[in-house]
Automatic annotation (TrEMBL):
CDD domains: NAD_bind_m-THF_DH_Cyclohyd (cd01080). This is Tetrahydrofolate dehydrogenase/cyclohydrolase,conserved site. GO terms for molecular function: methenyltetrahydrofolate cyclohydrolase activity; methylenetetrahydrofolate dehydrogenase (NADP+) activity. The keyword Lipid biosynthesis does not apply. Catalyzes the oxidation of 5,10-methylenetetrahydrofolate to 5,10-methenyltetrahydrofolate and then the hydrolysis of 5,10-methenyltetrahydrofolate to 10-formyltetrahydrofolate. Residues 92-207 form the Tetrahydrofolate dehydrogenase/cyclohydrolase catalytic domain. Belongs to the tetrahydrofolate dehydrogenase/cyclohydrolase family. PROSITE patterns: THF_DHG_CYH_2. Residues 228-375 form the Tetrahydrofolate dehydrogenase/cyclohydrolase NAD(P)-binding domain. GO terms for cellular component: cytosol. InterPro entries: Aminoacid_DH-like_N_sf (IPR046346), NAD(P)-bd_dom_sf (IPR036291), THF_DH/CycHdrlase (IPR000672), THF_DH/CycHdrlase_cat_dom (IPR020630), THF_DH/CycHdrlase_CS (IPR020867), THF_DH/CycHdrlase_NAD-bd_dom (IPR020631). It catalyses: (6R)-5,10-methenyltetrahydrofolate + H2O = (6R)-10-formyltetrahydrofolate + H(+); (6R)-5,10-methylene-5,6,7,8-tetrahydrofolate + NADP(+) = (6R)-5,10-methenyltetrahydrofolate + NADPH. Residues 14-25 have a biased composition (Low complexity).
Length: 378
């Protein structure tokens, strides 16, 4: 906690040692103390103050502080000296929000069963024996069970032909009990993923990657039947946290078809002014510093630093990377595309890794499957 003297003329604050503070207090008058506290109040209302810090302060040197950004705690000795402590960003609890979404889905599925005698069905196609893919598929099946959604699955060997995969997709397309089809990616290299994904009926495309759904997402006045799960999860995190989007500057770091581009389109649909930062973007830091909302989905470990951020912005970190850490049992820890420790001292809201965006992806998958069934049984 730094001791700070307020200059009533310009709102400039300077750190002092206890000795120098005592000397200045001896010279201060009651009126100057009142003026100092008034100046501090202006800081707390967001007019801002320039802060120079020493040592291990959590506020970077010469950063402009505003109360909305750091929600500074201000206290006064009554003698013209105030204490200001910068507070870290509010952590967006993706686990809690995802659980709320899943509970909503479970309740609606139960109501559908009561009303129609039917429940949503999700089919997952797995090609090959990748351990990570098998883990993802198991987690999706478990989530379906908990929500009351019927789970279907087909596992094909690594050497399955493309035609064999397409035949499975077509069978699920024709099954009226299946309302969502998901082909687990990546598939073996000899299979054309674009062709397989394009074969899924756009009415059952719960991943939101069918050309018709992506095309509709990109056009004003057209509504896709499904939106990709992770980008939709990012928007849900913002909206359920009460972070405004309309009229705000938003930057998406990354332009992948899976997250970056759909996320930018979703922000644009909600009336944000959107910029995409990618590998050929000059001065990405300067662009990010203008943003009220930053979605990082570039696949580069801790690329976005706290110095890139506008004070008080909202940061959604989609990345998940393994960083060497000998202190951990597995020898690594998970980090995102944002350098969390520095970013949380600048941002107003931020998602952690893990526990931020990740839990939302499966929650939105369940939500998409439910919506497919609601259309089928309307």
């Amino acid at each position: 906690m730094a001791l700070i003297e307020c200059d009533t003329g310009g709102g400039i604050v300077r750190p002092h040692s206890p000795a120098s503070s005592s000397a200045r207090l001896a010279r201060s008058s009651p009126s100057s103390a009142i003026e100092a506290m008034a100046s501090t109040a202006r800081v707390a209302r967001g007019l801002g103050a320039r802060v120079a810090t020493r040592g291990a302060s959590s506020v970077p040197t010469n950063r402009t502080l505003s109360a909305p950004a750091h929600r500074a705690r201000v206290s006064s000795s009554g003698r013209g000296v105030v204490r200001v402590r910068a507070m870290s960003a509010t952590i967006i609890d993706g686990k809690a929000i995802a659980q709320a979404v899943r509970e909503e889905v479970r309740e609606k599925v139960a109501a559908m069963r009561t009303r129609t005698g039917k429940v949503p069905g999700l089919a997952v196609v797995l090609v090959g024996e990748r351990k990570d893919s098998q883990t993802y598929v198991r987690s999706k099946k478990k989530a379906c069970e908990e929500a009351g959604i019927e789970s279907f699955g087909t596992d094909l060997p690594e050497d399955a032909t493309e035609d064999e995969v397409l035949a499975v997709v077509e069978a699920y397309n024709a099954d009226p009990n299946v309302h969502g089809i998901l082909v687990q990616l990546p598939m073996p290299k000899h299979i054309n993923e674009e062709r397989v994904l394009g074969a899924i009926s756009y009415e059952k495309d719960v991943d939101g990657f069918h050309p018709l759904n992506i095309g509709r997402l990109s056009q004003r006045g057209r509504e896709p039947l499904f939106v990709p799960c992770t980008p939709r999860g990012c928007i849900e995190l913002l909206e359920r946290t009460g972070i405004p989007i309309a009229g705000k500057e938003a930057v998406v770091v990354g332009r992948s078809n899976v997250v970056g581009t759909p996320a930018a389109l979703l922000l644009q649909r909600r009336d944000a002014t959107v910029t995409i930062v990618h590998s050929r973007t000059p001065n990405p830091e300067e662009i990010c510093r203008r943003a009220d909302i930053v979605i990082a989905a570039c696949g580069q470990m801790e690329m976005v630093k706290g110095s890139w951020l506008k004070p008080g912005c909202a940061v959604i970190d989609v990345g998940i990377n393994a960083k060497d850490d000998p202190s951990k049992k597995l020898g690594y820890r998970l980090v995102g595309d944002v350098e969390f420790d520095s970013a949380k001292e600048v941002a107003g809201h931020i998602t952690p890794v893990p526990g931020g965006v990740g839990p939302m992806t499966i929650a939105i998958l369940l939500q998409n499957t439910l919506e497919g069934a609601e259309r089928a049984y309307a």
